[in-house]
Structure formats: structure tokens, C-alpha cells
Amino acid sequence: MAPHGSVTWRIVNILIVGGSGFLGRELTRQAWAAGHAVTATFATRAGDIPGVRRLPMDLRHSAEIAAALAETQPDAVINAAYRKTDWATTADGAIRLALAATQHGSRLVHVSSDAVFSGADVHYDESATPDPITPYGAAKAAAETAIRLFAPTTVIARTSLIIGDGGSVHEAFIHELAAGRRRGVLFTDEIRCPVHVADLARALLELTVSDHTGVCHLAGSDAISRHELGLLVADRDELDAAMLTAGSRAGTGSPGALDVRLDSTRTQRTLRTTLRGARDFLRRER
Ligand SMILES: NC(=O)c1ccc[n+]([C@@H]2O[C@H](COP(=O)([O-])OP(=O)(O)OC[C@H]3O[C@@H](n4cnc5c(N)ncnc54)[C@H](OP(=O)(O)O)[C@@H]3O)[C@@H](O)[C@H]2O)c1
Q1: 231 in contact with ligand 1, CB cutoff 6 A
Q2: What is the DSSP letter of 10?
Q3: What is the pLDDT of residues 156-206, one digit of tens each?
Q4: Mutate which of 52, 58, 61, 82 to test ligand 1's pocket (most atoms within 8 Å of Cβ)?
Q5: Is any ligand 1 atom within 6 A of the Cβ of residue 194?
Q6: pLDDT tens across 241-264, in order?
Q7: CA-based Rg of the chain, rounded to a whole angstrom?
């Protein structure tokens, strides 16, 4: 272990909380491939990642967190768990985990979200103050604040829409729209900076073994609308783009921020991993 701001941490054994989730599975796969001893926790979906130990753990229960830390003795804990509509998991659970990891002497990397911002300022770098306007954003912001104050050596890594090679909920939604299995509109005025799950996991693991502390931004380099994201996925996957209805979200009363662009320039300068933009990683191989 290393104190704040000194040499790189010696990280062998990693506990990935939320290891059954979309990001958690990729983190688990990459950490294992890099030679770490990895344990992936799950809440409801045990899943199956060859070679990786899996452990049930519910962030709502302190005893389960303590037992997982005692059993795995991790050098580092990465928290990729959340439940969007559950404050007890996303805020209280994250804080509970951070307290336990700190007491245990484990390095902590906490995954946060661009949902901590309202969109009023559009561009947000790592120094921006959270001003959430949804319960989810408020839960993420509450966790960040508590963790930053009592565990200042933690990395708090904010990210944006997480996209994979077909595996994300966002891509699944676009596929359903294009196939006519769902009805909906892709907004032209809701802007985010999508990131590829593999880039994000690589950057998080890089931060885990580094001496970084505090807030980092890990979003892709392109700010694009939900509709452009749909068109890019449709082009890559050869879907019927004409089925993707474009529309404006302003005035619909739909909750959440319209235009939130995480500026990751400062964090990117410190990383070897490139956080590609969506126009790059969704480009179809021709
Ligand atoms: N997805 C995005 O576009 C996006 C955008 C910005 C930020 N983020 C952040 O990125 C992180 C990962 O997101 P994701 O999309 O990979 O999420 P996900 O696929 O929904 O996975 C969530 C994980 O959390 C676990 N979990 C849920 N409730 C739990 C509880 N009470 N105790 C312990 N674990 C619990 C789930 O376990 P089971 O599946 O086993 O129930 C699962 O492993 C989150 O911090 C999220 O806020 C995501």
C-alpha cells in the first residue's frame, strides 16, 4: 500500500464489486487477463467468468461487506455496483463499502457518473461541483462527497454512457427500436460522451495500480446525441436506421439532464489508455 501522492500501489489481489454487471464483467475479464487474483461479487446474477472466483455480496448489508473483505483480503476494491432506483445501494451501500475498504487498508476505486451534473453548464471537468437533478444523480453525488471526505486517497471515476460491442443496455434498446419490438424516440438534444467498456475498464485498472487520488473523468472524446448514437450503432450493426425516430427532448418533461459533456482531458493526459470517441469505436469495419 502507498500513502497519498507517493509511489505506485502494489496491487495483486482485486475485489470487483458488481462484477456481474456490464462494466464489472469487463473489469473482471481484464484484471484476470492481466494476472491479478480477482474476486467478482454479484447480488442476483452469479454468472460465470472462467477462472474467476465469485462471491455473493449485497452492499445493503455491512456484515456481507465485512465478510467479503475478510475472506478475499484485497489490495484494491473497485466498486462498479449500483442500482439506479435504489438509494440504499447506490449511495448508502457505496459509502458503507468505502468505510469498510478504508478500515481494511484496501485501495478503493469508485465508479461514478455524469448524472451528478444538471447540464446547466454543459461542459464539466474534474473540478466542477455536482448539481444533480435526479434521484440517481443525487445518490451518486452523495456517495462521491462522503467518500471524498473520509477516504481522500480513493479514485472517484466519473463516466458517461457505457457502450460495448453490442452488450450494453443502450445498444440493446437501439436494436429493439430498429426491429420494431419497441416504440420510442431517440433525442437529438440529449448529449453525452459515450465510452467503450473495454477502454473504460482498462483506464480503471490503470488508475487502480497508479498513485492517482480524487476525481477523474473517464468519458469518450466525442459528445454526441442519443439519436447520433442510434445511427452509429445502426450503421455498425447494419440495422434499419429509418426505424429510429428522432425527436427533441426539451419540453417533454422527461427527467434528467439534457446536455452533459464530461471533459476528460485532464485525466486522459495521465493515462496510457486512450478513451476513444463513439464515432471512432462505433465505426463499421468495411
Ligand atoms: N451503464 C451506463 O451507461 C453508465 C453510465 C454512467 C455511469 N455508470 C456507472 O457505471 C457503473 C457500472 O454500471 P453498469 O452499467 O455496469 O451496471 P449494471 O450492468 O447494471 O451492473 C450493476 C452491478 O451492481 C450489482 N448490484 C446491484 N445491486 C447491488 C447491491 N445491493 N449490492 C451489491 N451489488 C449490487 C449488480 O449485481 P447483480 O447483477 O448480480 O444483481 C451488478 O453486478 C455504475 O457505478 C454506474 O453508476 C454507468
Answers
A1: no
A2: -
A3: 999 999 999 899 999 999 999 999 999 999 999 999 999 999 999 999 999
A4: 82
A5: no
A6: 999 999 999 888 888 999 999 999
A7: 19
Within 89-193, strands assigned E span 107-113, 123-124, 155-159, 162-163, 185-187, 191-192
Q: What angle do CA 255, 260, 266 make, to 5 degrees?
A: 150
Cα gap 65→270, rounded to integer Å: 32
Torsion region of 238: left, alpha or beta (phi above 0 gives left; psi -120 to 50 gives alpha): left
Provide the residue count of the chain: 286
Q: What are the strands, taking DSSP E only, across the chain? A: 13-17, 37-42, 53-56, 76-79, 107-113, 123-124, 155-159, 162-163, 185-187, 191-192, 195-196, 214-217, 224-225, 245-247, 261-262
Grid cell of 98 as nine digits: 468505502
Residues linked to residue 17 through DSSP beta bridges, in sequence order: 79
- The answer to whether the CB of 214 falls within 8 A of the CB of 152 is yes
* Torsional class of 18: left (φ above 0), alpha (ψ -120 to 50), beta (otherwise): left
Cβ 194 vs Cβ 222: under 8 Å = yes
**pTM listed for this prediction:** 0.96
Distance of CA 80 from the midpoint of ligand 1 (Å)? 6
User: Cα–Cα distance between 278 and 26 in angstroms, integer?
Assistant: 18
Closest C-alpha to ligand 1, atom 7: 113
